[in-house]
Specification:
two-stranded antiparallel ribbon, 363 residues, mainly alpha
């Protein structure tokens, strides 16, 4: 089933005066306003809302696939930001005119070209700085391109057997991946050409995610809704192994940094983020080894919130299910992802991430 909606931009008077304050005054998308005026910010929260209240199912029904689905949601929503930022901001000759038009249309529609250019230069300056925070440096750029090409190849191989990550319909992992793969990597001119030529199956998946009634003739023999018997195909395990190599070191380094940071700030009141600004998303930078170099990236509690959801899904499984999940994660090099935790859970209050009580004080 489809959820009808009307899309607007965050530059309207209504958004600035009514929606943004209710959403914690954080300028991040997506933010949803329901007909009754309720505000929901963040894609995960929006999907949860429709799953819980409207009966639309985006998650697999079995705990085993749910855990893997949430893994792909974490990596899609956050892990692919590095290639997304690189391919958007490192190829001015190809991308710049398109980006200037898109930013101008979204931020100051109807303005003259000089105004649009000034707004773009300001906004793009902030985003280029943010790209460095995601690990985009002159040293890392060729490695980011290698990594992304490998991902496209692995995802293409998986899509040879099924139109979506877990079978015949999109689930949460698909929605996590579509964020960067559509908004940056399939729309900006340089990476769009790369995806079309190197990974046409992935580009077709991007189109299919926006046109669910697409006649996917290559998959007509696939009858089941999701993979039968809670199966994890070999191509999906290969993607998981790629995640272990590419993103697990960063996640581990981020969790270690956060725990040290929390130890240095023992007086943080539960229900707050411990920072001067309630809407601030980062607590610092952590270093880790990646593809033979050292990267320094932003530590964002939101990522721990997503990680918790994955780990919580494990506890929902039966004893046999948990053993199966642990075996698959061990087989693919991701065993530690099920155990690493921050000293405080990340909770969401008024659409913003905050720290819960210190878990070590419960014993």
């Amino acid at each position: 089933a489809h959820v009808p909606y009307r899309e607007t931009m965050p530059n309207t008077e209504h958004y600035i005066k009514n929606v943004a304050p209710a959403a914690g005054n954080r300028q991040s998308m997506p933010t949803l306003e329901l007909p009754d005026g309720e505000i929901i910010r963040d894609g995960v929260a929006i999907i949860d809302h429709f799953e819980n209240k409207s009966g639309h199912g985006f998650s697999p029904g079995t705990p085993k696939q749910r855990v893997i689905n949430r893994l792909l949601d974490v990596i899609g929503a956050e892990g692919l930001l590095r290639p997304a930022m690189h391919y958007r901001w490192s190829f001015n000759e190809t991308n710049l005119d398109y980006l200037q038009n898109e930013f101008g249309a979204g931020i100051v529609p109807g303005a003259d070209q000089d105004t649009k250019k000034q707004v773009f230069e300001f906004a793009s300056g902030r985003m280029r700085k943010a790209a460095a925070g995601f690990g985009v440096t002159e040293e890392s750029k060729p490695l980011i391109e290698q990594s992304y090409s490998e991902f496209l190849q692995l995802f293409s191989q998986h899509l040879e057997a099924a139109p979506y990550l877990l079978g015949n319909r999109p689930t949460l992992g698909d929605y996590g991946l579509i964020g960067p793969l559509y908004a940056h990597l399939a729309r900006d001119p340089y990476p769009a050409a790369k995806m079309r030529t190197e990974a046409p199956q992935v580009f077709r998946w991007v189109e299919r995610m926006h046109a669910p009634h697409q006649v996917a003739v290559e998959y007509q023999t696939l009858k089941e809704d999701l993979f039968e018997s809670d199966a994890v195909p070999a191509t999906l395990k290969t993607l998981m192994s790629f995640i272990a190599e590419e993103y697990l070191p960063e996640i581990e380094a981020n969790v270690a940094f956060a725990n040290e940071w929390l130890d240095r700030h023992p007086g943080i009141e539960a229900g707050t983020n411990g920072l001067d600004k309630p809407g601030e998303r980062t607590i610092g930078l952590s270093e880790f080894s990646w593809r033979g170099i050292t990267l320094s990236t932003l530590v964002m509690p939101y990522r721990f919130y997503l990680l918790q959801r994955l780990q919580d899904s494990v506890s929902e499984a039966s004893d046999a299910g948990q053993a199966f999940i642990k075996s698959v994660f061990a087989e693919t090099g991701l065993a530690s992802l099920l155990d690493i935790r921050t000293h405080r859970r990340v909770e969401r209050v008024k659409h913003l991430e905050v720290w819960g009580p210190d878990l070590r004080l419960k014993n």
